[in-house]
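Bumping with the actual sequence this time:
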Amino acid sequence: MAKTNAIGWFDIYVGDMNRAVAFYETVLQQKLAPIGDPTGETQVMSFPADMSAYGTGGALVKSAYARPGAGGTMVYFSVEDCANEASRVAAAGGKVMRPKFSIGEFGWVTLCEDTEGNLFGLSSMK
């Protein structure tokens, strides 16, 4: 098998789909699109993706801002400047948990909570 990044797909679980879609579309300024579920058991809205470009990066992290167990996985969205997207989080109904901070040679991160209580990160190189 050819080398790929560790993660090929992620799900962020929500209680209120309309509220969650409005939140992420506002913060990321990107439209989500419905994906059909062949089982008919779930409602799915996809972030924009090039499905021919498989995978994304990932890491194991110990942090005071998240813990292992239920809800312990963090998704980081790649953005131009994480301060820009973070400035839209509160108005969209979420919370900035840790404002923009340096992660050294790997850029900058802002940690946030969405309208569903999920922690997520915004990651940028500036």
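The tokens above came from a reply further down the thread. Residues 17-28 form the longest helix (12 residues).
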